[in-house]
Amino acid sequence: MSLHGGSVSPPPKKKRGGPGGFKSAGGGRSTSGFTPPSSGASFRPPPSSGSSWTPPSSGGSYRPPAASGSTYTPRSSSSTYAPSAPTGSTSPFGGFKFPGLGGGPGGGIWGPEPTGPGFTANWTESTRTLVAAGAGALILLALGLLVFGLLQGGTEKTPVAVAKATGITKFVPPTTSAGAKTQMPITFTDGTTADLLYEPSLDLANLGVNVYDSGTLGSFKRAGRQFQIDHGGASFIAGQPTPAPQGLQGAAGGASVPVLPAPSPTQGKYLDFKFGDWRVGVWEGLGNDLMTSSDDQAWAANLVGTPNASGFLVLTAKDPLKLTPFGIPGGPYMSIGDIFSTGVLLTPGACNLPMGNNVSNNANGVPVRVSQNAPNHYEGDLCLKNQKMEALIYGSQDFVHGVSDSLELTNVKSGAPR
């Protein structure tokens, strides 16, 4: 989850599979079942609805499946229901017989209609009326309780509500002025640094910055893990139990690493790393993909995080843990703001200048695709070809054009090889 990227996903994207990364998504947790990513595979963050999805365990490109919250198995019978013909008797429901409650030749849950008089044959009209009224009241009460339960259970927490509950805070990097533009130094989690320049009125830094990364331990298919990275708190755990459990031994000089349950309805547990103001969650997995206790210990002892002078988190690892290299799917990337409303997704790697429909030159003469994907919501695709960086821009038409016209990436310096 990310407060500003949400358990987030940009609107549907074309050509590239994109980097790895979660929020929550992120954003608020829904009441539907959720299984966190188990691979370092390429994928766009899942939709902010928090709907149910299960990622692949392979290293292939990932797209979330349909946002269904449950598994539905249709009936094997092709028969249809036809209500029985009305009889001469008067029903408390105006002559309507409810399907499956007795009625019609099939009988429903209480069997077929009686063929002779039963124990109610001698009831007076007042008795029948009282029984009917009582039955109606019970049905209305049950329906009311059902609706109340659905409303209570189906309320999805917003990113703001999740942030308040978990202590997540917005990470706002320092900025300076560089001529007519604002300059924001940025650092990806592998240590790659650059200066991001933009028109001051865009105020990108105050939208908040989120970082993403992944790594593997042993077999890629079995132990690849996409990290969940939060600032100030942790959205990926249900809470801090009291008393606090004894954690696994962390890397030299590092804090111990507890293994804590994920918040409902997320399944499984997370290794909860603390690196300064940053929290990094590594999911244990489920079933055949569940990590062993020795796997947990290997993660805890070999993942190292260090906030740099600008407050960005830099991750390193020791063998046998391997972090995904910069510039390939699943490797470090970054989002600024909330890409479902107003934000920018920076994806390292070679990119191609857009061509075709909805493409025009920006203020610097660089081709940019700007297309509308919802009422008053636009997507821009800016390829910074020389810097090998693609900027996907989301927001109002003015915001998308403002970023695509002014965004520059300078002074790119590679981090340590992974």
Sum up the structure in keywords:
single chain; 418 residues; alpha+beta; seven-stranded antiparallel sheet; four-stranded antiparallel sheet; 5 helices; 21 strands; 15% helix; 26% strand; disordered N terminus
Structural notes for this entry:
It is a single chain. The chain has 418 residues and is an alpha+beta fold. It contains five helices and 21 strands. It is elongated and about 55 Å long. The two termini are 25 Å apart. Mean pLDDT is 73; it is low at 1-34, 37-123 and 146-157.
| Strand order, sheet with most strands | 5-15-16-20-19-18-17
The 3D shape can be described as elongated
* Unreliably modeled segments: 1-34, 37-123, 146-157
Number of helices: 5
- Cα Rg: 28 Å
The quaternary state of the protein chains shown equals single chain
Number of beta-strand segments? 21
Q: How do the SSEs run, as a string of H and E? A: EHHEEEEEHEEEEEHEEEEEEEEEHE
Provide the helix percentage: 10-25%
N/C terminus separation: 25 Å
Largest sheet: 7 strands, antiparallel
The computed structural class is alpha+beta
Mean pLDDT: 73
Tell me the strand percentage band. Answer: 25-35%
